[in-house]
Write a structure and sequence with these properties.
The protein has about 650 residues and is of the alpha/beta class. The chain contains 27 helices and 15 strands.
Length: about 650
């Protein structure tokens, strides 16, 4: 079974909104035959009642048109149960997260029901005591069906999911909440995986232990029984820590979806544009604010272009505009005058399509125009090339140092004053790449010069630059091993030459199966590529988890099915989760790997989707935290907040 999130989304839409003639559906069924469903035209109007957790899930998965087509005429929030209007002639679909907060709101609604009959859908497993409390509150017996579906996450693309960080008032253990969301994803995908996590991450150790505990516990409820029965090899849940790759979010992306997020920010598949942005090259200057919904399902141009680099994107958009001009010319007023009635009818029926076509062209024109504007304003043709050169070691260190100084002195070829943020990103990349504190001190001196930098960097930004190498330079087991090899094989005087070779290996540039892009702006490959290469195509004697810095946990059912050496099996299905945030560039990498190797099924997700600004804000917070907690006391402080239940599960 391929790992396709769109298939899950469609199956759950049928489950939620199609009326089934057979009422014996079971709770764990995730696909519904449309042959047993009642046509929407024969379904009476219904109300959809959501909570704050399922609202973004529904909004990202389904359009208003789809809901209306299935006679959902009203959407309300359960938390406002006291303000609902009584409409007993309407039935209600309730779709909530089975947390105590939403269960309490549901109980209040059931004490005074505003609608006729209720069908209750839960986006994750519900506890027995919660179900009993709902049954006690249903004194009018208005609930006709209770079904668990597993959708406690947001679907962004076919291969990209988001575990939202919204927490309920009763959440005392964020690790437990995070693991429950990942459990729902595994159940939706029907996978019982081996768990591999980066062994140097305390956060991932806690999360993986909780996941293993829940998988083994839920096996008693038969939820994870036989999920792998059609798989020759066990699936893999790969848990990664963003702190082990702090540079990928800092590098300016050059593909369409990533650039939109970098310059405009995509929030729940929506881009908010101001009047200046949305009216670019348009006469509609009266718009103050506008929302652009990005959907790879409903926008063919976006689906075909989301992973294109900027050059290919502009070429494709030019052809798209020419196609629009050609089709609209055929339907012009002059052509209408000379067209016979049958042809006229065909043209008129296409008018709504032309309107949709026109709107779509204008949408992408606005997006691409704003991207182009930001590239020019930020001088990213030069800055982006320098970022790639530093990250990939495309030039010797002295030349790169001089180029960084040119930027800090505002004496580049373009003679443009580079923004403070872009200067900081260059310094961070350089400090991560090279172990030369004197160079960083010189850069800081230039950065703090008010005649060269406006605005001046904040104290948190300065602290980040000073501590970046210390905090993140040795986080990665892979990086540590490579650096040790450098020091053993050559003296410190030759560390630069060795580091260049090792970092090229880190980015997997010498792998014959890897196609190096000729585009200077696409030379960098996220560290994820190295890890996946080691898992998918392990080298002899190097496939052990230790060489990749990974630890392994194997659920009981997987051991029973595949034996004690289950972790040695070849990998076909990989579910990736990056704690600390994933990037759209890593999603693109997953897409390209899947396209080039149809044997491998990959999806990726995280607890956020980062751009460089978001990641920098997280970095500032990390530095402040480390500054406030000298030494390693922060670790003890964190441990003191872990409740006894989690400690017990760590031991187990």
């Amino acid at each position: 079974m391929a790992l396709n999130l769109s298939n899950i989304k469609k199956a759950y839409f049928d489950k939620l909104f199609l009326v089934q003639n057979d009422t014996t559906a079971t709770a764990t069924t995730t696909s519904v035959s449309s042959n047993n469903s009642t046509p929407p035209s024969k379904i009476k109007p219904r109300v959809l009642l959501l909570d704050k957790y399922t609202t973004p899930i529904i909004s990202m998965c389904y359009t208003q048109s789809e809901l209306l087509a299935n006679n959902i005429i009203l959407i309300e929030l359960l938390q406002y149960y006291h303000d609902l209007s009584s409409m007993k002639h309407l039935d209600c679909i309730i779709y909530i997260k089975p947390c105590q907060e939403s269960v309490n709101d549901l109980r209040q609604e059931l004490h005074n029901p505003h609608y006729g009959q209720y069908k209750l859908f839960l986006n994750n497993c519900i506890h027995k005591n919660q179900l009993e409390s709902i049954a006690e509150a249903d004194e009018y017996e208005v609930i006709t069906k209770v079904i668990e579906i597993f959708q406690d996450y947001q679907i962004v693309n076919d291969n990209l999911y988001l575990v939202d960080t919204i927490s309920s008032k009763q959440d005392v253990n964020p690790v437990l909440s995070e693991s429950e969301k990942l459990i729902s994803l595994l159940l939706a995908l029907k996978k019982n995986p081996i768990i591999r996590y980066e062994s140097n991450s305390i956060d991932l150790k806690r999360l993986s232990s909780e996941l293993l505990y829940q998988i083994n516990s839920n096996s008693n409820n038969n939820l994870f029984d036989d999920l792998n029965r059609y798989s020759d090899s066990p699936p893999l849940l790969l848990l990664l820590d963003r702190k082990n790759d702090p540079i990928t979010p800092l590098i300016t992306p050059w593909t369409y979806q990533s650039m939109i997020h970098e310059f405009l920010t995509i929030e729940k598949n929506i881009v908010h544009m101001t009047s200046d942005e949305s009216s670019t090259n348009s006469n509609n200057s009266g718009n103050k604010n506008s929302q652009i919904i990005l959907s790879d399902e409903n926008d063919p141009f976006y689906k075909e272009s989301m992973y294109l680099n900027y050059g290919d994107l502009t070429d494709k958009f030019q052809k798209y505009v020419e196609k629009y001009k050609s089709e609209t010319k055929q339907s012009s007023i002059d052509n209408l005058k000379t067209t016979n009635l049958s042809e006229l009818k065909k043209i008129l029926t296409k008018f709504p399509e032309f309107k949709k076509f026109s709107t779509n062209v204008l949408t992408h024109l606005n997006l691409i125009s704003e991207i182009d504007k930001q590239i020019t304003i930020q001088d990213l043709w030069d800055i982006g090339e320098l970022q790639q050169a530093i990250a990939c070691g495309l030039d010797n260190q002295q030349n790169l140092k001089e180029r960084v100084l040119l930027v800090l002195n505002n004496t580049t070829n373009s003679n443009k004053r580079v923004s403070t943020i872009n200067k900081i990103k260059l310094i961070l990349l350089y400090s991560y790449r090279y172990n030369t504190p004197n160079d960083v001190s010189l850069f800081l001196q230039k950065l703090n010069d008010p005649t060269l930098t406006q605005p001046l960097p904040s104290s948190s930004q300065i602290q980040l630059i000073k501590r970046f190498k210390t905090l993140f330079g040795s986080n990665s087991i892979i990086d540590q091993q490579k650096l040790q090899n450098q020091n053993q094989n050559q003296g410190l005087t030759n560390i630069f030459a060795n580091k260049k070779i090792d970092l090229n290996n880190l980015f997997n540039r010498n792998n014959p199966s890897h196609t190096v892009s000729d585009n200077i702006y696409l030379q960098y490959t996220p560290r994820l590529n190295e890890i996946l290469a080691g898992l998918i195509n392990p080298q002899p004697q190097s496939h052990q988890d230790g060489s990749l810095g990974l630890a392994t946990l194997v659920p009981d059912k997987v051991k029973q099915q595949y034996g004690v050496h289950a972790s040695d099996e070849s990998v076909q299905d990989i579910i990736i989760y990056i704690k600390g945030g994933v990037t759209y560039e890593e999603s693109r990498l997953i897409y390209e790997l899947s396209e080039s190797n149809k044997r491998i099924n990959l999806i990726i997700g995280g607890d956020g989707i980062l751009n460089s600004e978001m990641w920098l804000q997280k970095l500032y917070s990390m530095v402040t935290k480390f500054s406030d907690e000298p030494g390693h006391s922060h670790r003890a402080s964190e441990d003191s907040h872990i409740n006894r239940q989690t400690q017990l599960r760590d031991i187990l």
